[in-house]
Structure formats: C-alpha cells, structure tokens
C-alpha cells in the first residue's frame, strides 16, 4: 500500500557527540555542511539542498547517539491526525516549543525508546548574500567543499525488537514497509519504511546486544555515485575511518559508503541512482535469511561490525 | 502546496510513428526497452524498472505525435474522485476497456486536446525466465543493451495556451506546479507540474505555431549522468539526430539530452541526480523572461528548434 | 628511470579456455568485444579502441591459462635490439610467422616460462561498413553492447619467483618497475612494470603454489569508473562470478573489478582515471609487508582467493 | 611515427595576469591548486598529482597571456640533443638559472614567438606534514577543495601560421602531430602534437587576428567527466565565466569545459577518459574544413569566441 502522506519527510536529527569540535570539523569541512547558528551546546548545520533551517543539530554530550528524529507533517491537519493517533496509543509525550526555525513540536517515542518530534510550521531558509545560489530553485549555493552532500536522507535505528517499531511507523505515522528481512524463525530482523516516493526514510535493524534506543547510522544523499567514490578519497586523506564500501546494497539497491564520524556515530553516504517507489500498491519485499547471507549486490560480505557497532556504545 | 496524491504517476504513453520499424529499432536496440506483446499496429515496450505491463505503446500511424498519456491513480477511491471531477468539468469522455495489463480506463482531454487515460487496476509484470532479475526488488533484468533507460519519466506537451492546461492538471488531476516561466506580458509560457516527490511529471510549453494537441517530447530517466554521456556516443554511432545537450537545465536542474527518434518525435534522456521535492509547502518557482533568455544552467543557449519542432509537424 | 621505449605496448594475448562457447559469449556479449576472424580452434576478438587486428586470441584447450603475450616493438630497429638481447641471454626461441594481421614474430620466454612474442609489422584494422566509427580518430564504432571495454590494458602473471622475471622485463625488454611489494624477508612479492606512460603493462605476483607459467589475470580498461559500476550489474544479471570489487587498489590506485570468465580465467576491469607516469626519473615505489596487509585503498581486505586462484588450476 | 621521447612532458607554464589576487583565488579556491612559494610578483602553484615543484607560475603583469612553457627533458643527454638542435636552427636564446626547484634551463622560441624553457634537473616535491598523502604513490594529499584538478595537461597556442610552429615541435623538440585540421586551401588551421602516450601536449591554432605569441588556453586534467560536470556547478556558483561546454570534442575526443579565469586567460578542464596513443606508427588524422564545420562530437557548434578570444587581447 501507499503511505498516507501525513508525514512529508525526515526534517532533521539531533546527533550527540563526545567530541564536539572534531565532529563539527567532520560535518563542515569533510561533509560540506554549513553552520546556521548555535544554541547552548548545539550547533545547527544544514546541507545545501535543505529548504528548512537545519538538517542536523549537533550536540556536545557525554556519549554518542541520536537524541531525536524530526518528521515534518504534510499540513496542520496531517499533524493533528498523527498527534491524535500517537496520543491514543500512549506513545505521545506532549508539545514543546520547536528548535530554531521550527514551530510547535510534538514529542513521541517508538516502542524501542527512540524519540521523535513532529511539526508542521517551518521557516524557509533565506541564505545570506555569500551563500545565495546561482539558480533560484536551489536553497543555498553549492559549497564545493569536501563531499558536499545534498540532503539528509534517512535514519537507521537499532532496536531490540524490529517488528513493533515498524508497526509504530506504519500504524501511527502512516509509513509503509518497502523491504524487510525475515529470519527462518519468522522474526523480522530489519525493516525499511517510507513516507513518499523515496524507497526508505526510516530503518529498524535488530540490535544484537538487546539494547534500546540506539542508532545504527544516519545517511546523507549525494547526487552521484562518483561523489561517493570521491568522498572515499577525501575520507582516506583525512583519516576518517571507513567501515565498508563503496558498494551496492542488494536490499534497496543503494550505492553506499559507511564511515564513523569522530564522535563515533556511523554515517552513511548513499546514492539511490534514479530509483523511486512510484507504485501505489507496492508489496513489501521480504528477504530470507539465506538471501541476506549472500551479502551485498556485487558479492561483498556484510562486515561484522555492522551487527555490533551502534551508538551510544554498549558497556 | 503538496499535490493531492490521487494520481500516483505517469503509467505509459501511446506514441505514434510513421516509421514503425525504425522507431521500434530505436526503442529496443538503442534505448534498451523490451518488447512485451503486440496488438494490431501497436507494439508494447517496457523499461526494465517498470512494474506494470508496459511503459510505451508504439503505434504505426500516418504521422508522429502522442495519442494518449496514461496516469495511474493511487487507489480505486482516488480514481473515482478524479473521474467525478473530470466529468463535472465536462472534460471526461467515458470508460473504455484498458490496454493489455490495464483495468477499466477513463478517458479525458485537457483543454488543448491532449488525451489522457486514468486507471487503477494494473497487473504487475512477471518476467519470463530469461528476463528474471538477479535482485528480487527489481522488475526485470538490467538489459545492458544500448542506453538501457530506467523508466519513463515525464511528458512535455505543446499547447496553444499553457495556463488553462496547467489549471486542468492542478484542479482536476490534483497536481501542483513546481516551476513555471512567466513572460513580461504576464502570460505563462511553460509550466512544470508534479504528482509526488518527482519535481515534474507533466509539462506544458507554449506552441508558437498555435496548434493544438501536439507533443514537445517524452522523457526517459537514466540512473546517472554518465549514462547520458555514454548515450550520446551511442546516438552518434547510430546516426540518431542529437538536437541539443548533454547539458543541465536551469529550470528543474535536470541533466538532459534531446534526440529525435526515427519517427520524428523528440525524446529526452534525463537525469535528476538526487533532487526531489520533499517540502509539502513548495512554492512555485517563477522564472522571468529575462531569466529564461540566459539559457541553460551552464550557459548553453536554448536551441531554436526547441520552439518550433513538435509532433505531429505543422504543415 | 624511464623505460627504453623499444616495446611500445602489449598488443594482444592468447587465452586458453576449456569452455570455448561460453567464453566466447562472455567476451562478445558481456564484455562487448567484436569477433574478427577464426583460425582452427581460435577466435580473434578485438576491443573497439584497438588499431590492430585483434586484442585477444581465444583458443579452445583442455584447460585454462595464457598461452602467449604479444608485445609490439616501436620500430624494426627496436625489435632487432630486443631480439638480440633475448637471444644473447638465452631466452629466445626463434622466429615464426605471425598470427592474422601480424608480421614476423619472435618467440621468447621469461624465467618462469611464460611465452612472449615480439613483432613490429602490424596491419591497421579497417572496419567493415557496419562497424565504421562516426569519428575518424577511432578504430571501430563503439558497440554499446554489454560492458564495451576500450582496450586490453595489462597482463598479470603468477611466478614462482617474482624478481628474476621483473629483471627479465627490465633488462631484456627495456621496461621499468613503477611499484613493487617487498616482504620483511627482502623478497619481492609482486612487481608492476611499464613500457610507456601507462603506470603498468606487465605484473608479476608470487605464486604461492610454487607453480610456473600461470596467469593471475588479464585486464581490460574502461573509460570511466561508472562503466565498472555498470559492469558489476551486468555481471550480476548474467551470473558471471564476481571475485572482488569494485574498489580502488592502494598500489597503482587503479579502480578495479575482478571476475572469472566461464573458462576459469580471472579477468579484471580497470580504470586508471587520469593517472599517468610522466616523470622520466620515476623512482620505484616499494610497499612493505605491513603496508600491503592494510588492504586496498579504501580499506577492503584483499580477498583470499587472490593468492590461490590462478590458471591453469593446480592439481 | 612515434615521438622521439627526448621531451618527457610539459612541466609547467608561467601565466600572466592583470588581476593577480583574483586569479590567485581562482587557481587556489576554485581549481584547488596549492601555493608552493612566491618570488617577486609570482606565486608558484601546484596540482596535487605534480611530482615537481610547481605546475603553474602565476605572475602579476600589465596584461594577460603566457610568458613561458617549460618542457622537461627525459635525461641530460636528451636535453643536450634538443639544445643542440635548437641552437643549430637559430631558435635558441641561451641558458639561464632555473626557477625554484628547477635546474639549468635553456630558453628558445617557436617561430611565432612563444617562449619555451627546457630543463632536466628537477627537485621532487616533498609535501609538508599537512599535505602528506595517505597513499605513498601520490605526490600530495588530494585537496577536496573546489575542482581539485589532477595535473596540468596541455598548452594551446595561437599562432599567425600554424604549420611552421608544428614543424618546430616536430623537428626540434621531437614531438609528433596526432591530429590536425587542413582547410580547403591546403593551409593547416590547427595541429595537435604529443611527446608520449598522451594524445596531445602542445596545440597550435591559427590566430585570426594575425597576432603573434598569444595563448588560446592552458588545460588541466581531471580524473573523471563527473569532475567536470561538478566543476561547471562550482563555476556557476562562483561567477566564473563559462565560455562553452561541457561537451566532447570530435578532434581528440576530449571531454571539455572552457572558462575564463579572472585575469582573462582561457582555461580548459579536460578529461581524456582512457584514451592513449599507444601505436608507434600512428598516422596523423587530418580533418577537413567540412568536417570541422560540423562542430563538436555530439553536435555542439563551435563557439564564435573560440576564434577571437586569446590572451593578451589584441587592441
């Protein structure tokens, strides 16, 4: 089935880092994001194709991980519908003032404890003179610095149990699962969910440590696969740890590269080529345990740390 | 505003050609489409990423042009809503049996006389053994023959008056205009409209000859810009007329290449890189006459034939 | 030091296959080579950028492996100098008639037993009408079929001892080593040698089985890295075994992909980006055992079969 | 015929600019070159793949243009041979001390008055800690700043008469012409000459103004065509004037983009894909006037300013 479209897209995330200066260097100099203000221990950062105030709120903290994932509703009515559903299901926390550039914000948690914020009102970004783009249909000038990622693409959570969290996204947020892995035991080991034509926006992967509320990775989209090959050289030159890739996922067919930012959080660069889910009656693709064991599309074995590294680290 | 999502996407088009054998060679050997059945003077063709029966119905005819553009609704209810609206506006023609693989189909025309068909029921394509893809989340094996385009991307109509046709798409089909050109006289010279996260699905451009019902081009999406550079070499080697490109449009920022297929219809290869319209409150970008006069993104002047060549040709 | 330039380039190789029909399918349909005549159990095949009669002589045989590597001299005088040197060193076998399109040919062997042929006279390829290129500075029309590799790039031999074979290329053929691996024991485990501005044309790698005369791989160059990513999809769809890649070598920085053709021989697709050795006083780069252990440029571990799989197989 | 190999490659050029600060910004921030010292009104700049002290000497001057083109000999003996030939032909000026990092340098002029310097001794670049590359077979860390061009590729001179200058390169420097344009009158309108496997290093184009000693452009090579598409966006965002491209030349098949640096000199970004001249008996390709009139490979017409803009400008 098609998603309900009540949620338009992932707006931004708040990422925690115990190495705030190094993480800031990574996101600005290496990834090419632009700073757009500060608030306490947090720095607001934006990709050049983001029309909102920020794509990433980077917050100094005692450890790593994701504090919150922000979802923009498609309208005030859509937001009201989602809040009502979350509240009825006992998953809502309540309203807060939004972050910089963001209107009234409703907090909720998924069953695994990851915090979400939903909002409708959002100020469109107005670039200062030096960041004004040459083409008026673009939010900000292309930076040409480091990787220069286009946009925040998706968030991949770790969860002790995948299925209830996928249900949460489907039933309470109006998303749909496009692909999933089902083990021989019948257990869902991972699920990819989307809100629009992108083939996924949120992903849940089973946390082998049984912990709650952890992050597997956040992903930024580049315009081309060549941007990712070039990024690999930039990471190599700047001592950014490359975990695996570049290669092509069998699941979702995404061209990928995984690195750890200096704070320890796993960051993916992804390029979907021109793939979109246009079918309004898409049937969830289910991969078996045997199919998953084959590794990535072109035969690369899934790296062991993919199942063990998450943030914050488990003691 | 966000589109209503009642229309999911452009499903297929019926293209007319006075050179059926040569056009078939072009679409199969050069573009890499796969034949999927015939019906009278028509051949059904499909791109490898299409989940439906066909992307293109190629029909032998006395002249060139587009006979019909098929839009898939998001559900039976969505289809009913659109039919009711079209009927009420006097733009409906009535129900017919659908083409191969397609259920009940409602015909309508835009004010300029271009024929549309709307449908909900659609058989999912089941590839024969030799076309079965290696990855189960893909409709058909990647052909590796000629350009190997991924999908039908959009249709660009010529119209004597752009604005009433854009209104038709917005008011009766639930689309929205993402970008447009407004002349100094206030007249809308071109409008780009979309139904989902793709930044455009249907385009209207003013027909300087004042004719009705003509086609500017249909476009196929490739996965990468490199596919388009490679395609240019394939066209060069096979005497396919290249009209303009490869280059990048300022409007919509699409990387493009325009050729004429042997029947005379203009065909675009397009690559959107990773650009999507995610904002639910996107404001239509309006380009002025002076801005349009600057040409394409990297300075290429718009080719003269862009304003004169359409199909069928005008006597 | 700069190479002597007596050898201009690798002209072609003769490859043996126990699966001649399947290997022929691989080289023509998947790799995009063009057949250019037959002779007994052999088929002559050519890449589209090859100016000579053939790039590959594919010969049906009881097993796999490489029968001969052909080197074109830079002139008759250069050939005479090389023959004299080979003869004096006792490595020459004698003159034979050349293969189709090739003049008088001198046979010799390296210390490990790999057979070489040296020649000067060579007929320039004249394409038939249907293969005539659109641009006159190109040998043959770009095929647009499968991977469509540009040229034969290099040959990588296995040898029981690397060093004497590298010396053979340097002292008797006038090549130079651009890079090499030296183990902690002082032993040279691999050596890359070149004859012109390409950074390598012949490579010797230590054969852990201690066998003689075996092949590690032959490599074909593509125009872009994107061609290699696209090739990976073509291999995947056509059940061609992908051994490792795509990735970037640390040594020589080549972007690579390794597959086995149906006869069992390892084939590399390589793209050197724009890297050339222009320095006439290039100093051989020596990689230590510890550096080699780090794997490829972006961290991929060297696959185990890289040290064990060669052709013909060892009983 | 093959070139003599006495000249190894173009080492560097001295470029004149009336806008030294803006030109320096262009070459460092936009093109991604690295400063490597200053000398009076000159700044030494280097591309990251250059093994020598500098690729470009940028000198403040009253006007634009090229002061000198430096060619590195293949050995001391090769240098001596060239000096003897130049001297005998009356084209030599004499010996001077070399620039920073360069040994004894011999000056000469081509018939049109362009100044050349020939040298053998050259200090290999030793990067400071912060510019040390991750891979030891690379001269300097990849900058990831702006376009990040790999190397200086070629110099294209304007000359009142092309043929005597081509003869100069062939007879006195040991180069060879790979391609040329011959007008219907028999006059050579342009000639591309090379010293190694690159298909051209020096180019002469007829100066329609009849002036002497002018520059058409200098070119920098990128690793990929995608680098050039990305560069076009960087130029667009930074108000660098794009004259023509990106497109593919019919002659030499180079993928190109031409801009003017702030001092007025035309700069090309070029990517040769994997094309090399390996044939030792390459026959000069001659394009007719009619063939040249067809424009570039994919049909782009040659821009008018290509025949009129050179530096320094003609009053």
TrEMBL record, chains A, B, C, D:
Alphabetized SUPFAM superfamilies for the sequence: Glyoxalase/Bleomycin resistance protein/Dihydroxybiphenyl dioxygenase (SSF54593)
Record's keyword annotation contains Repeat: yes
Positions of transmembrane segments: none
Cited InterPro entries: Catechol_2-3_dOase, Glyas_Bleomycin-R_OHBP_Dase, Glyas_Fos-R_dOase_dom, GlyoxalaseI/FosfomycinResist, VOC_core
A Pfam family assignment: Glyoxalase
Domain (VOC) ranges: 9-121, 151-272
Keywords assigned by UniProt, alphabetized: Repeat
Top-level taxon of origin: Bacteria
PANTHER family linked to this entry: GLYOXALASE FAMILY PROTEIN, METAPYROCATECHASE
Protein name: Catechol 2,3-dioxygenase
UniProt organism field: Amycolatopsis dongchuanensis
